[in-house]
UniProtKB/TrEMBL annotation:
A single MF term (Gene Ontology): D-lactate dehydrogenase (NAD+) activity
The UniProt record lists the keyword Phosphoprotein: no
Xref: InterPro entries: Ado_hCys_hydrolase_NAD-bd, D-isomer_2_OHA_DH_cat_dom, D-isomer_DH_CS, D-isomer_DH_CS1, D-isomer_DH_NAD-bd, D-LDH-like, NAD(P)-bd_dom_sf
Stretches of the chain forming a coiled coil according to its record: none
Start and end residues of each S-adenosyl-L-homocysteine hydrolase NAD binding domain: 116-291
Family: Belongs to the D-isomer specific 2-hydroxyacid dehydrogenase family.
Keyword Calcium found: no
Domain of life: Bacteria
Protein name per the record: Hydroxyacid dehydrogenase
Matching Pfam families: 2-Hacid_dh, 2-Hacid_dh_C
Source organism (scientific name): Streptomyces antibioticus
Keywords linked to the UniProt accession: NAD, Oxidoreductase
Length: 331
């Protein structure tokens, strides 16, 4: 069976090709899967998609009409896939249910410390041989409060790092994590967490219940000098409301690895184009904001695990096996 993989990054391609060698033929494309590119998949029984693919009803219908029967997504999140439409069309859908939580947790802390200690501003200055310290003052994390929204594997890893800094830990989730409680985490309401935390990090999946979890009211509930980090999904934050608060001079720092309108924008070179997204254009102008391109997961360890799980998903499909990665089973 030959597989067509969409949205493959240059660093990712050799890992994918090595992993599939001896199993199935795979063709890697750097374009993302959407309604315009879906016809390319005609004749391919299996398609592998990236997290920024658009897999709504119309795209799935194009894939199914072209003979595709398996979609193996190379990510944990699957909010971009219309699972009901996939089931109706007889498409099997699998994802990667687990990869290194440390990759994302460590990057979330990278963002937090970068905005706290003004690293980007300092780096820009020193490139111009400006070595002043004006405007570069940060804060110790030791003794301050970290609020973790979502305390699964990634949230737990983030909390362990916060514990190492000597921080007070507050958590919010639908279920308490005993490992986090052993670190001294206290589970509180979302309102209390927002009001008391000096650093707030988001580690919850995007679903209808969590869309704009951090809305205008939530942002207003935070301390004026809080640090907000999102390395999960862009839709968790109402970005327009965030821009409004930033214009009022609020927040010591905001670190975003994700953006709610990133599909079709992130992972692509837009440097020679006019940016039509006014919200993003305004967001990146704030000196206390750092935006990166959904790269928190992007380590050799995590990507290797994602690729290995994707190979397993294809092999399981071929053998008629079902695993915990399957979202829509084979009929």
């Amino acid at each position: 069976m030959e597989i067509l993989a969409f949205g493959v990054q240059a660093d990712e391609k050799p890992l994918i090709e090595r992993a599939f060698a001896g199993h199935h033929e795979i063709r890697c494309l750097d374009v993302f899967l959407n309604e315009d590119t879906a016809p390319i998949a005609a004749g391919y029984e299996a398609v592998s998609s990236s997290v920024n693919a658009v897999l709504d009803g119309p795209v799935l219908e194009i894939l199914a009409a072209g003979g595709t029967r398996l979609i193996a997504q190379r990510s944990t999140g699957f909010n971009n896939i219309d699972l009901a439409a996939a089931e109706r069309l007889g498409l099997t859908v699998a994802r990667v249910s687990y990869y290194s939580p440390y990759s994302v947790a460590e990057f979330a802390w990278t963002l937090a410390m970068a905005v706290n200690r003004r690293v980007v501003r300092a780096s820009t200055r020193t490139r111009d041989f400006d070595f002043r310290l004006d405007g570069l003052m940060g804060r110790d994390m030791h003794g301050r409060t970290a609020g973790v929204l979502g305390t699964g594997k990634i949230g737990e890893a983030f909390a362990r790092i916060a514990h190492g800094f000597g921080m007070r830990l507050l958590g919010w989730d639908v279920a308490e994590n005993p490992a986090c409680m052993e670190l001294g985490m206290k589970y509180v309401s979302k309102d209390q967490l927002l009001a008391e935390s000096d650093l707030i990090s988001l580690h919850v999946p995007l679903m209808p219940e969590t869309q704009h979890l951090i809305d205008a009211d939530a942002l207003k509930a935070m301390k004026d000098d809080a640090i907000l980090v999102n390395s999960s999904r862009g839709g968790l934050i109402d970005t327009a409301a965030l821009v409004s608060e930033l214009r009022e001079g609020r927040f010591a720092g905001v670190g975003l690895d994700v953006y709610e309108a990133e599909a079709g924008l992130f992972y692509v070179d837009r440097s020679l184009e006019t940016v039509e997204d006014d919200t993003l254009a305004r967001l990146v102008t704030f000196p206390n904001v750092l935006v990166t391109s959904h790269q928190a997961y992007y380590t050799e360890d995590a990507v290797g695990q994602i690729v290995d799980a994707t190979v397993k998903n294809v092999l399981d499909y071929s053998a008629g096996r079902r695993s915990e990665n399957v979202l829509v089973p084979r009929t």
